[in-house]
Amino acid sequence: MSCPLHPKRLFLCLLISLAFFVVDPSSQHLEIKKKQMREKVREMFYHAYDNYMTYAFPHDELKPLTKSFTDSLSELGNLKLEHLPTDYNGSAVTLVESLSSLAILGNSTEFEKGILWLSENLTFDIDARVNLFECNIRVLGGLISAHLLAIDPTNRLIQGSYNNQLLRLAEDLGKRFLPAFETPTGLPYAWINLKNGVMDNETTETSTSGCGSLILEMGSLSRLTGDPRFESAALRALRQLWRMRSSLDLLGTTLDVVTGEWIEYSSSIGAGVDSFYEYLLKAYILFGKEDYWRMFRSAYLASQKYFRHGPWYHEANMWSGKPTYWQLTSLQAFWPGLQVLVGDIAAANSSHREFFHVWEKFGVLPERYLLDHQIIHPTMKYYPLRPELAESTFYLYQATKDPWYLDVGETIVKSLNLYTKVPGGFASVRDVTTMQLEDHQHSFFLAETCKYLYLLFDDSFVAKRNYIFTTEGHPIQVLRSWHEKLPETYFSGNWTLSKSGAWESRASALSLQVCPSIALNSRRPEQHRESACHVPDEQINHKCWSNKECGVDATTCRLRTCSGVGYCGLWNPL
Ligand code: DMJ
After folding, report:
1. Are 419 and 435 in contact (CB under 8 A)?
2. Residue 472 CB–ligand 1 contact under 6 Å
3. What is the DSSP letter of 199?
4. Separation of CA 389 and ligand 1 centre (Å)
5. How far apart are CA 557 and CA 540, in angstroms?
6. Is the CB of 133 under 6 A from ligand 1?
7. CA distances from residue 153 to 162, 169, 377, 494 in whole angstroms, order as listed
8. Whose CA is nearest to atom 3 of ligand 1?
9. CA of 241 to the centre of ligand 1 (A)
């Protein structure tokens, strides 16, 4: 608005400008839209939750097409129902997974009711073989997070008395996990029988994420109970895994827990490895141990060097760094969210856009998309209501406040309602090319998909406290008493995510070497920051004899190479 300097006009202009700022129509419009969307997501959550409670509870998950149930916690162990004890009624996994979402939605009645039911009925003394990773992120993580929310007086979620029932359940479950870690390497078996420990002839094969992303839940359990065994078991496994990395700082996808040898050498940020990266950074944020930082930094830099191709991430051989598979897997869509925590907003934004384009192309995100042929993987055409794109969208909106991310969220909500909503809940998509449905509503739809969408449109929950979210979307508060580095000046408003200001959103925890949250709030723009992937050339004048002497370009994160006349540069075409 231009205001010519005539006193009367100036006064008028000032008034108009003031009115403009007080009732900015565009921000008003945004608030209305956010409110509408928040209510839509709330409806989605309750449609999924109520149907689960009516047709499936206390079994583990809902089958929304037939309005029946599946005991997926045990089916995750490939056990058919007839192999389970006849009186087994499930472990109410979806209820456990819903508690933190109910808390975020402010439904204290249902939250408290759920806790009471679980404390009176849930038992882990069952002869069922379960997947350690899944049981850890869904059940242990769900219980711990709900316990922390229940004892937080600011949330006022409990009216009656709460006597740490969820923590006791979590401790019992954690103890049942411990035999899985009794291997020569300390790497846990992927499967454990909750009653009898590791079964005879149990497979010794596991994945990197399966044995390398247990530390948030098991570490929290140790801090809460004072029993160090959980944290040390998870940390020992993590360290062992890290020792097994290649000289390029890459890890394979599957390995043998007894011999400590790699089985699948192809490495990626997607399925089988994804949450390994996530837990290194989040463990650093939660516990402040320098070790996590060092591991994460090297692993992250290697991921940028060997997997990244513009906004895309392909897979690479862990020993040679050569590309193996050029495919997008839908789990990779969590990566931009992680990059927000790192401070790499530009990179996060560009990858997120590509994932969203694929979503728009098919209506939802196919499980695998072949980048080199630009087609869907012939046998992995499904979309099981996964949360990862919504998750990244939430983080990016927090970091940038760019309303475009709200539009992305709206598109996701529309697609979910259009393609997956059925009278009995929300159904997974079996084939994204035909939108044929499958009779399964995974518990992570309530723990993550609905939660991240809700938080995108209403972040009042994260504004109260500093939380990190586990890989299953369960919030755990960052506490000074658990943290090795949080300074005395630690305050408890939310600063885990960057909120505003150009430099703040560019700040990189990788270069600042501190918990990203502190970095993002330190308001010291003079502090030196650099790109997360930058590796300088060996010589200050950029001269070289071989590629080895060249580093990684700070802006594009591409490897620099040595030219014919001996200068490092971006000589290789994309
Ligand atoms: C969730 O169970 C977790 O996010 C896990 O880390 C991998 N992805 C699924 C949902 O897609």
Report:
1. yes
2. yes
3. P
4. 11
5. 19
6. no
7. 11, 21, 49, 17
8. 472
9. 20
Residue nearest to atom 11 of ligand 1 (CA): 386
* CA separation for the pair 574, 410 (Å, rounded): 33
- Taken as a whole, the chain contains a residue count of 574
Distant-in-sequence, close-in-space partners of 248: CB < 8 Å, separation ≥ 6: 302, 305, 306, 318, 319, 321
Residue 471's SS3 state is coil
Per-state percent for the chain, helix, strand, coil, to nearest 5: 50, 10, 40
Return binding residues for Ca(2+): 471
List, in order, residues 6 or more apart from 11 with CB less than 8 Å away.
Answer: none
Most ligand 1 atoms within 8 A of CB, residue of 281, 331, 445 to mutate: 331
User: Tokens 């580095």 label which residue?
Assistant: 485
pLDDT tens series, the chain, 574 aa: 333 445 555 454 445 455 544 556 778 899 999 999 999 999 999 999 999 999 999 999 999 999 999 987 765 444 444 455 666 677 899 999 999 999 999 999 999 999 999 999 999 998 888 999 999 999 999 999 999 999 998 888 998 889 999 999 999 999 999 999 999 999 999 999 999 999 999 999 999 999 999 999 999 999 999 999 999 999 999 999 999 999 999 999 999 999 999 999 999 999 999 999 999 999 999 999 989 999 998 999 999 889 998 889 999 999 999 999 999 999 999 999 999 888 888 889 999 999 999 999 999 999 999 988 889 999 999 999 999 999 999 999 988 889 999 999 999 999 999 999 999 999 999 999 999 999 999 999 999 999 999 999 999 998 878 899 999 999 999 988 998 877 665 655 544 333 333 334 334 444 443 333 333 334 444 443 445 566 778 887 677 888 888 887 766 667 788 877 777 777 776 5
Q: Residue 187 in contact with residue 262, Cβ under 8 Å?
A: no
Known catalytic residues? Answer: 134, 274, 367, 388
Tokens 């129902």, residue located:
81
Whether the Cβ atoms of residue 424 and residue 62 lie closer than 8 Å to each other: yes
- State in Å: Cα 489 to ligand 1 middle: 35
Segment holding 368, helix H or strand E: strand 368-370
CB 84 within 8 A of CB 126: yes
pTM: 0.84
